[in-house]
Structure formats: C-alpha cells, structure tokens
Automatic annotation (TrEMBL):
It comes from the Bacteria. Residues 29-114 form the Cyclic nucleotide-binding domain. This is CarD family transcriptional regulator.
Amino acid sequence: MDQIRTYFERFAPVGETDWAFFSSRLRYRKVPRKTALLQAGSVENYLSFLSEGIVRCLVTREFEETTFAFVFQGEFISGYDSFLTRRPSGYRIETLTNAVLWQISWEDLQEVYKHTEVGNAIGRFAGEHLFLEKSKRELSFLTRSAEQRYRDLFSEKPRLLKEIPLKYLASYIGITPQALSRIRRRIT
C-alpha cells in the first residue's frame, strides 16, 4: 500500500487524515496468472493499482486477440472508460502473471472525492496517466511504422521485450508474429 502513497506524493502531498480515509477504502486482491480482471461486456467497478505482476488489455474478435496495453508493477489499471461512464467495456483485462492489486471501487472513490482534500488530485493523476498512455499509443499507430514501433519499445518500454511473449508483442504493435520475426531478423 505504501507504493500507492509514494506514487501520489510525486504529485501532491497526502496528509495523514486523507491517507487514512483513502487507504481504508482500498481492497487487497491476489490474482493468479491468466485471470480476467474485466470481461468484455461487463462494467468496470474498480480503479486498481498493480503492486506486483503484469496485466494486459485486449480485444477479442472471432478467433483473434489484439493486445492494446500492458501494465506493470507500480502502475494503475482499469477499464477506465467503463469505470467513468458506468457502461459495459468493449475489451478484456487479464493478468499475464500472478498479480497483487490494491483496488478502490467507483462508489468508494466518489466518497474519497467528497471527503478528502487530496481526493480529486488522486483521481485526476490516475486518470491523466491512463489518458496519456492511450494518446501516445494512438499517435504511434498514426505516425510510426511497425518496425519503428518495435524499435521504440527498446527505449520506452524495455521490460516488454524481456517479460512479454512475442505473440503478445506482435499484437501490441499491430502485426503478426511472423512479421515481428522478420523485423527482428532485419534489425539484429
């Protein structure tokens, strides 16, 4: 739980009273690998902080999965659009490894917003982080080739290259595993 406080205090100090109120609303959850945290068609009820593990977000069409995000230890994960709108999600979120989450429900987060000085800042920082990651990825697909997107992973997200299976990496950069193999052969 201290990881969350440290994360927030990079942006704003969190007083003891506010922290006690916020942390009392957090739910600890251990999740085995390959567990769905959110199913497509379900409403997201939690904003989660990933204390341990790796999570991916994906869309399934017929027999094909497309991974569009990875989340690592020390980051927030949520079907945030569904969380905010209270409407069903169009995608799935699942653990790739065993994971430990600290979760706050939508209802409890509304209480944190109402009753703490730092509550709105906490929600804003978590939401801004999720938005910026999404925007960066969309821009990459509009302006970069598949090979450039793969090369960008070396500098921006080297953990992906070490910890994520190649079939998921290929899906993440928008190509087939065979095309990724060709790119890897070409640049090594």
